[in-house]
Structures are given as C-alpha cells and as structure tokens.
Amino acid sequence: MTSTEQQPFLSVRDLKVHFSTEDGIVKAVDGLSFDIAKGKTLGIVGESGSGKSVTNLTILGLHDRDRTAIEGEIVLDGKDLLTSTERELERLRGNKMAMIFQDALASLSPYHTIGKQIGETYRKHTGASKKEARERSIEMLRRVGIPQPEMRVDDYPHQFSGGMRQRAMIAMALVCDPELLIADEPTTALDVTVQAQIMDLLKDLQQEFGTAIVFITHDLGVIADIADDVLVMYGGRCVERGTKEEVLRDPQHPYTLGLMSSMPSLDGPVDVPLQPIPGSPPSLLNPPTGCRFHPRCAFVDKVAGGLCSSERPLLEVADGRGSACHLPKEQRKELFADLAVIRHN
C-alpha cells in the first residue's frame, strides 16, 4: 500500500467483520486489505457507516468475540493479532499500539485526574512507581503542548477545554511510545484552529517517534493535510486506494469523485454549487448486490448488462494504486472530466 520500499509494519489481508444481531448479520467489513509502514500515515476516508471505525477496533481486538465473526489476517510487526489471546492483546494495547478516540470527554474518566489516567497506563506496561508515572505524565503533557503541566496534571477532564482534552488523550496514547497509532476522527469536534494544532502535533510526534498512523476521517481536507496514502471505504469495502496525490488529483472511483464534488474548493469560483452525493449509505444488514455504490452512482447506466447491480467489481491494484469499478479506466477518465470537477494537477 505504501509508496516506498519499506516493509509494512501493519498488514491487513481480506478482513471480514460480521456482527450477529436480532435482525440478521451485519457485514460491517467485507474483504478489506491494506498495508502501512513505520513513519507513514494511512488515511481511511468514507461516510459514517462505511466500516472505518470497525476496522480499527478489530485491529485493537476490542470486539465481543462471542457476537463477532472475524476472518482474514491482521499482522502487526510479524505477529498475527487475530490468533492472539486477550492477555496478549492487552499487553500490546497502549504499549505497541494505541488509539485516540473521537470524543475525549467520553473516553476519559471524570472521577480521576488527567495525570492519574496517563500514569496508570504507563505503570501497567512498564511497572513504574507512582512517582515515576507522575513525572512521565507531566513530561507527556508538556510534550503535547499543555501549559503549566506540573499544575494541570492534577486537574480533572472537565477542567480542560475540548482541545486540551484531546491533547491529553494523545499524551495517554503515546505515553508508552507505541509504534502504531490509530486516530479515529480525533479533530471532528474541534474548531479549525485547534484542529490544525492537533494535526501539527501528530505530525511532529510521528517525526520524533517514527510512529505508523492510521487516521480515520470523513473529511478529504484533513486527508490532504496529514496522509501519505489513502484508502476510500464504502459499504464495508475498499473502493479506491493510492497515494494522497494520486487519489485527490485523479480520483478513479465515482464515490471518491462524489466526495470531492461535495467539498468546497479554496482555489475555485466561490459561486459554484456543491454537488452532494444523492441517497444514503447502504444498509450493511442488507447491502445492495454487485457494486454497493451502484444505487447512488451517476454512471451506473454507462455499464452494459446491468453489471453494476449484479457483480462485485474487483479491486485491481498495481503499485499500490487501484479502484473497484466496472467502468473501464479510459471511459472513467472521460466521464469524470466532463463533470468539470476542479482538479489540482
């Protein structure tokens, strides 16, 4: 998946995650593959319900195994996570891999100080004393830009602003220097100024530690800022992947094009109306046959024989670049150009 010759630190192969419910089987992830190398950021983008968060919770082993059917392979630094025991996963979580959740206030305990919550994670994985853990907590709060960390370490989450809570979450995630960091829309609830600060912080910390980052978002603008490679998900499947430059400058799947067309452009005419994707994301309980995007696709009538609604398109990947669409590549290029979408190449 990566655009370098580095060996993947995390490798996901043909991942399927299905949940049993009273109404039937929810196919939340349905055959997903990707790689990420150390020091690189993979951006996973898609609408709500596309399977982004489920994928990353599966990597961390946070699903109820009694109600979840998981197939495929997830290998982290040579270790198969899907065959690991819960005890082995507990040793890895917070230590070798960590996650920043979207809602810091809901993820932090209101009954314990920020310093205690960061310090307990550190003590669990290192056996450090309470004094050492407190010193480490202060160091991490300083590293993520919390002013007066010696004083704020004893504050509770409600005494922090939204941006500061998110920084505290990042400090907790990084306290044991994990080699894989999963960020699940960590800037969604923040204003644009704080969002930019958090993004810069993640990039600085990645450069310092060489961390591999999986960044989940629905915002292509965020992807443009932070990602090296991009994976576009729809209906539990990957519909397009490539480097950031390839995907954003030359989208090859109608869904990716739709996401871009629904975004405002900073360098285009201000009076051009946005073009939202019609319809709603598919039900993963009863997904459409064939290409899952076909009920919302503007080009479905361009493919002969009803192929879009009857046959799943293959994700053909060459040198990390590919898309899952029945339209021939040259025809796609011609049709996409006709929409006069603002390009940056």
Automatic annotation (TrEMBL):
Q: Where is the ABC transporter domain?
A: 12-260
GO terms assigned for molecular function: ATP binding; ATP hydrolysis activity
Swiss-Prot/TrEMBL keywords:
ATP-binding, Cell membrane, Membrane, Nucleotide-binding, Transport
Q: Which InterPro entries match?
A: AAA+_ATPase (IPR003593), ABC_Ni/Peptide_Import (IPR050388), ABC_transporter-like_ATP-bd (IPR003439), ABC_transporter-like_CS (IPR017871), Oligopep_ABC_C (IPR013563), P-loop_NTPase (IPR027417)
- Primary subcellular site in the record, as a coarse category: membrane
How is this protein positioned relative to the membrane? Peripheral membrane protein
Task: Name its cellular compartments.
Answer: Cell membrane
- On whether NADP is a keyword of this UniProt record, the answer is no
Cellular component (GO) terms are:
plasma membrane
In the record, biological process GO terms are: peptide transport
- Is DNA repair one of the keywords? no
Give coiled-coil spans as residue ranges. none
Q: Which CDD domains match?
A: ABC_NikE_OppD_transporters (cd03257)
Q: Which Pfam families match?
A: ABC_tran, oligo_HPY
Note the superkingdom of the native organism. Bacteria
Give the UniProt family note. Belongs to the ABC transporter superfamily.
Q: Which NCBIfam families match?
A: oligo_HPY
| Protein name, UniProt field | ABC transporter ATP-binding protein
Supply the source organism for this entry.
Streptomyces rochei
